[in-house]
Q: What sequence folds into this?
């Protein structure tokens, strides 16, 4: 099976936040579980959006829907380590693009994971993909 290899230019990351590994994030192998990491990536994305004055969904029912996810794990993380999440956006198209993430241990800088997920803007009322809203376009494209 082919391994996923992710790499991103340093200048793509335009936001950072920190989150602790909670005891509830630990799996049976006694380290950060992949399900917990994915939830943390979503939280980092939500904080990124808020920091840029953008809402998860607009009054007309338009929001973001995730189309795919790729994660490259680089090392284990344990309770109660503090993780640094760097977030950026790239590879835009008419309807969306990719959120990219670099996760490191805040204290040591040791890499934990790289991830990206594709997204499109979706009108949940009309159940259809819509072009990137102007409010997003002017900030990032």
A:
């Amino acid at each position: 099976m082919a391994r996923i290899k992710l790499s991103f230019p340093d200048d793509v990351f335009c936001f950072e936040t920190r989150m602790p590994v909670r005891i509830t994030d630990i799996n049976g192998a006694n380290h950060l579980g992949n399900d917990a990491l994915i939830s943390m990536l979503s939280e980092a994305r939500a904080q990124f959006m808020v920091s840029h004055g953008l809402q998860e969904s607009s009054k007309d029912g338009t929001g973001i829907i995730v189309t795919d996810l790729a994660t490259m794990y680089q090392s284990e993380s344990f309770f109660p380590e503090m993780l640094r999440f760097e977030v950026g956006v790239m590879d835009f198209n008419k309807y969306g693009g990719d959120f990219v993430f670099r996760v490191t241990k805040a204290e040591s800088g040791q890499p934990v994971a790289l991830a990206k997920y594709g997204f499109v803007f979706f009108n949940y009322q009309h159940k259809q993909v819509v072009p990137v809203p102007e409010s997003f376009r002017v900030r990032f494209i």
